[in-house]
């Protein structure tokens, strides 16, 4: 009887250790070696992979791209989702229809979405440039110019992520007690004061949760980059995971790629800790 609870959770623990914990430690182990993925021998190099990475200009650009992409994606996704949720948190057929419409991109595969947006952002035949041309605006090189390619990927990420975040925000809004708004109405509180003093604090657990998972997900972006830009032009859209993929499975620099993976793990862990230390104190749990 004493062992029964441990036996029941044992399969989940074994799977978690086998597919999550072990790969992390093996990646850390490989980061100390120079290995081409084919040779049976691994040459121990210690911290040389990390020194080479941090001294490489391309990797510094990758870190900058990842930071810019993550910040813009998280900020715009959460901001747009919050205002959409405030608008759609009503009863009615039209609101239900709009909720379903904006959620639909979330269930579509990133491959299909990437192909769709590649056509829409085509310089000569894309729908976006055709639309801009109606207003006399010059064609935009969405995916083919270093100054616009990364921001184009941000647009795709925001378009896909807004629907899921909006529905989560709506669920959070519907859990706020109605009597709080009734009390604010009796006190003749303005809409802005009601939003900042009631809605936003009561939504803080939802906002905190979405901010953390959006940040982690943005750092792991791979599909859209692999299909739409392949890290170009001129390394302007290369981010952590695609950089790891290139070095590991195209150039067969497994130790180098593992070192980049360790740095990604450290960066995401540190940002998550900072999120919890700085923002968790502002979260109001009922």
UniProtKB/TrEMBL annotation:
PROSITE patterns xref list: ABC_TM1
Residue stretches spanning the membrane = 7-29, 67-88, 100-120, 149-173, 202-222, 254-276
User: Got a GO cellular component term for this one?
Assistant: plasma membrane
Q: Which InterPro entries match?
A: ABC_transporter_permease, MetI-like, MetI-like_sf
GO annotation, biological process: transmembrane transport
Its membrane topology is listed as: Multi-pass membrane protein
Where it sits in the cell: the answer is: Cell membrane
| UniProt xrefs under SUPFAM superfamilies | MetI-like
Source superkingdom: Bacteria
User: Which intervals hold domain ABC transmembrane type-1?
Assistant: 63-275
Provide the alphabetized UniProt keywords.
Cell membrane, Membrane, Transmembrane, Transmembrane helix, Transport
What's the family?
Belongs to the binding-protein-dependent transport system permease family.
Please state what the protein is called.
Answer: Sugar ABC transporter permease
């Amino acid at each position: 009887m004493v062992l029964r609870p441990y036996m029941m959770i044992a399969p989940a623990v074994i799977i978690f250790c086998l597919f999550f914990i072990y790969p992390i430690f093996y990646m850390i182990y490989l980061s100390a070696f120079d290995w081409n993925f084919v040779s049976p021998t691994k040459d121990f190099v210690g911290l040389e992979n990390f020194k080479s990475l941090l001294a490489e200009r391309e990797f510094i650009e990758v870190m900058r791209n990842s930071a810019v992409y993550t910040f813009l994606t998280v900020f715009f996704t959460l901001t747009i989702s919050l205002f959409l949720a405030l608008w759609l948190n009503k009863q009615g057929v039209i609101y239900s229809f709009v909720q379903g419409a904006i959620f639909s991109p979330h269930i579509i595969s990133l491959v299909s979405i990437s192909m769709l947006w590649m056509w829409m952002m085509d310089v000569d035949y894309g729908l976006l440039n055709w639309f801009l041309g109606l207003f006399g605006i010059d064609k935009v090189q969405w995916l083919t110019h270093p100054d616009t390619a990364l921001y184009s990927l941000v647009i795709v990420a925001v378009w896909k992520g807004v629907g899921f975040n909006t529905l989560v925000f709506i669920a959070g809004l519907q859990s706020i007690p109605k009597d709080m708004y009734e009390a604010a109405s009796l006190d003749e509180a303005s809409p802005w004061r009601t939003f900042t003093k009631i809605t936003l604090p009561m939504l803080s657990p939802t906002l905190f949760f979405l901010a953390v998972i959006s940040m982690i997900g943005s750092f792991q972006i791979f599909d859209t980059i692999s299909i739409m830009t392949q890290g170009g032009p001129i390394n302007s859209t290369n981010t952590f995971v695609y950089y790891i993929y290139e070095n590991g499975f195209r150039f067969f620099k497994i130790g180098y790629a593992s070192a980049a993976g360790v740095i990604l793990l450290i960066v995401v862990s540190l940002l998550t800790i900072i999120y919890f230390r700085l923002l968790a104190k502002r979260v109001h749990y009922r």
